[in-house]
């Protein structure tokens, strides 16, 4: 029997937005967490050079794995054997790989609700059981050590995401440490999705590896590195499971694109350009946070990272999908409905992505203020 997989509604809304654009409408795309900035210049130049000289066979870049190991040492102070890195076509296959190689069908995996839409659906596709923990504004929409310590029975695994999608909230180091300790004591294996690392506005995000050396970690070049379409990411397998993970990747995915691996190596040394994008997001975040009261939206958890604001619109609707469609139709501002991230409470939430230009954020605010005001009164 096939798993019952829910659609990604933001894709449906995005399709509508493109249809409107084709009719000549001006659209501001705030529905996806997709940087509009493109890969770092030096990475693109390298890709041009490589195209003329490389045969593009199946390949796993040893220099890239070594450079990633250095990145973990520099950023988190953790020493990782480069052989623990498995290069993938983004965090999406890394997630499938980590779950397939690290857990058995039927495994019960805890995760925060709201959370990234694919967690729930990939777990179902792999015949695993999502154990969703409702996480409200009082815990900044994040899992806590306390929630994990009281789950009965203990789950087999847990997915941690910090910063998280759709809220951008971070789990601070003391709590991460406490989560790692509860999981060690209760035998819960951790899968940490660190795709939004590099995109933080207070303090840098910490890796779960600092507190749980045998955690599975997935990450990607899609967000901070601004290389979504290059499809490059990695899975860091626990020492004992590297062989299993390699067996899976060889059969499920083979290798990541050669061209992207060459470019990714250069992107890792393009920090000043990439940090410039973070400054844009910081400005965008401030502008949106300052504008929310004018939209009548007060129930949010300010994002510590990523490029999202997840806002409660329960006073305006209990149908976030229709709400997002109406907002798009009337103003051209395209957003994601909360039901993508939370099938229970998401009917009264909306997610704004501010991974667009500052001018677009300003324009979106100008369009949205009168629209929200008209609905609030
Ligand atoms: C939390 C999270 N994990 C994983 C992904 C998958 O990203 P990719 O496959 O582009 O690396 C996304 C994409 O938005 C995400 O938000």
Automatic annotation (TrEMBL):
InterPro entries: Aminotransferase_I/II_large, AspAT/PAT-like, NHTrfase_class1_PyrdxlP-BS, PyrdxlP-dep_Trfase, PyrdxlP-dep_Trfase_major
PROSITE patterns the record matches: AA_TRANSFER_CLASS_1 (PS00105)
Record GO terms (molecular function): transaminase activity
Alphabetical keyword list: Aminotransferase, Pyridoxal phosphate, Transferase
One family name in Pfam for this protein: Aminotran_1_2
Cofactor needs: pyridoxal 5'-phosphate
Family matches, as Gene3D superfamilies: Type I PLP-dependent aspartate aminotransferase-like (Major domain)
Transferase in keyword set: yes
Highest rank taxon of the organism: Bacteria
Catalytic activity of the protein: L-aspartate + 2-oxoglutarate = oxaloacetate + L-glutamate
Record CDD domains: AAT_like
Domain Aminotransferase class I/classII large: 28-367
Record-listed E.C. numbers: 2.6.1.-
Family: Belongs to the class-I pyridoxal-phosphate-dependent aminotransferase family.
PANTHER family to which the protein is assigned, alphabetical: AMINOTRANSFERASE, ASPARTATE AMINOTRANSFERASE
Name of the protein in question: Aminotransferase
Species name: Asticcacaulis currens
